[in-house]
Amino acid sequence: MSDIDMNGGTEQLSARQKEILRLVAAHFERKEIARLLNISPHTVKAHIDAARKRLGVATDRQAARLLAEKEGAMILASPVVAAPDVAGNPHGLAERLKRLNMLQVLGAIVLLAIGLALAFLLLMAGGITTMQAIQSLTGQTR
User: Fold this and answer.
1) CB environment 37-60: b (16+ within 10 A), e (fewer)
2) HSE-CB for 43 with a 13 A CA cutoff
3) I need a labelling partner for 125 at 20 to 30 A (CA). Which of 34, 54, 90, 111 fits?
4) Do 74 and 68 touch, CB atoms closer than 8 A?
């Protein structure tokens, strides 16, 4: 690593650059970061590029890891990490569902309906099989 990396390159980052790198470390894509922070993807790219240049690293992930290490944070290895939004609330399933477009919502509803129908059919088949087994064990026939 260069001298700037070892001697506090992360202190030279703006608050916004640090915020974006934390989201990169939490495995958010640039478009997601733009939506979360209510800025354009181009602006996100500009912040990341400037941060990478200041830190002397080649990739977004390297910059994010350097910041995490400098802040004493654990290097984030799992994509299942809640990142704070501008108000400080963690993003859960509800936040991600709010960002779906109408076609995605309809697709999710159709998939859910198909899943429920299959579960119902399996339960019915199991019930019929169970009833037949009980009838044959008790000697009841039709």
Assistant:
1) beeeeeebeebbebbbebbebeeb
2) 11
3) 111
4) yes
Task: Tell me, rounded to whole angstroms, the distance of Cα 60 from its chain centroid.
Answer: 17
pLDDT in the model for residue 91 = 55
Show the tokens assigned to 25.
């470390």
Listed in sequence order, the DSSP H helices in 13-140 are 15-25, 30-37, 41-55, 60-70, 93-98, 102-138
pTM: 0.49
21: CB partners within 8 A, 6+ apart: 13, 48, 51, 60, 63, 64, 67
Residue 124 has pLDDT above 80, yes or no: yes
DSSP for residue 76: P
Mean of pLDDT values over 74-85: 46
Other beta carbons within 10 angstroms of residue 28's beta carbon come to: 20
**Tens digits of residue pLDDT in 27-40:** 899 999 999 899 99
